[in-house]
Amino acid sequence: MVRKNWTRKELMIAFNLYCKIPFSKINSHHKLVQELASLIDRTPSAVAWKLVNFASLDPTLQARNIKGASHSSKLDKVIFDEFYQNWEKMIYESEIILQNLRNNAFDSDNTLNQAEVNELDNFVYSEKKGLTVERTIKARINQNFFREMILSSYENKCCFTGIEIDTLLIASHIVPWAKDEKNRLNPENGLCLNCLHDKAFDKGLITIDFNYTIKVSKYLQELEKNPSIQKFFLEYDKKPMILPNRFLPNKDFLDYHHQHIFKG
Description:
By secondary structure, this protein is mostly helical. The protein is 49% helix and 6% strand. The strands form two sheets. It has a two-stranded antiparallel ribbon with strand order 1-2. A two-stranded antiparallel ribbon has the order 3-4. The longest helix has 20 residues, at 134-153. The protein is elongated and about 65 Å long. It starts with 7 loop residues before the first helix and ends with a helix.
């Protein structure tokens, strides 16, 4: 059997999938791994192995001494770096490729042509009866991906409380969406929080320090006699957050939150 080299497009959608599956669940039996394998005519084992190759390049996993596979290619590293350098562009393009592949419109060369862009745009426009502009389409696609990526990184658990109810979980930004356009979709600028603590984090009532420890503002500490404040906030003060299995929060982003948003 002749071994097929992975194309650029195949690697883009493989990394797309790497971001969506919790690291502990990457295996040949995962339904998304099997779907992608079928779409690109590869075995589920080959797809799962490629995802583990990407894991070997992940700095968060390296910091935890999790090595992943040791046979990543030069093109694996190129794709990994391109996502890290421009999340917005690469997320959108990989979602386009994946959608076209599902619609049997996949071109295996290494370029993204305008016909592919138009096809996905037309697909999304049809859902909205032609009323949605391209910028809104891209924002929706990318925001949905960001949520999947952050929840997956935290194994679908709130990083403060451990709550595992998807409908109560938010993909929170450390540096607010409006303050840093370049890092809006950077997963190192994301936290998985429940609705209550997401709002408190957004309003500066809680933060995370450089040691990934939760800090509660003095404003809430002054309300310590309130049993609800004690239960939902002060109980977590000075406790370590639950770390993600990849995309560790960037300390520069945490510093921004501490300096400009946190009401210490």
